[in-house]
Amino acid sequence: MEFAGASSLQHLQALSNLLSTQQEDEDDEDCKNINACARLGPGQVGPPPKTDKEVSTPYVKKNSKDIWSEEEVAEGCQYEDDNDPRPQPEYEIILKQSVGTEDIFLGLNGKDPSSMCCESMLVKIKLPDTKATDVVLDVKEKFLDLRTLKYKLGLHLPHPIHSHEGKAQFFSEREELEVTLLIKRPMDFINMP
């Protein structure tokens, strides 16, 4: 009859030989002792870690000390300032689409009243006691930043837009700025025939 301890010692030695990445001739005599085999831990399982190559993932840039990548930071957050006492002006966003009689009566182009068929958006901003020369406007793909002496507006847009193809017009009699922006739709060839 075999001694149970000797059998488990042999199993440990066999397991050690399977998992060991070192050469067999280094410490063969140490594994005959149970205490020497107990020094194996989870760090010795599998191949040794790679130290000569950098691990590159889509979130880590090589040789960069940046904390976040540009994709992770919300557009327009650099304009948000909680300590700025200027109030936000009243504004209204209107989605617009070009329709003709063939769309209204016959439905030939497949357009419907939903926002998926809109081509542009109109942002109306009321700026009382403001001149057109006082307005500073910056439009990004998903963010509109408006600054005047009295007002501040940081507006996250509901749809991405073409930032270089818009137009702005200030109406002095109404004290209102109208910004027309063309909506960027990646699936336009499907949504609008």
From TrEMBL:
Record region (Disordered): 38-67
Pfam families, alphabetized: PIH1_CS (PF18201)
A single GO cellular-component term on record: cytoplasm
GO MF entries: dynein intermediate chain binding; protein-folding chaperone binding
Domain of life: Eukaryota
Location of the PIH1D1/2/3 CS-like domain: 88-183
Signal sequence annotation: none
Any one GO biological process: flagellated sperm motility
Family recorded in the similarity comment: Belongs to the PIH1 family.
Protein name: PIH1D1/2/3 CS-like domain-containing protein
The organism of origin for this protein: Pogonophryne albipinna
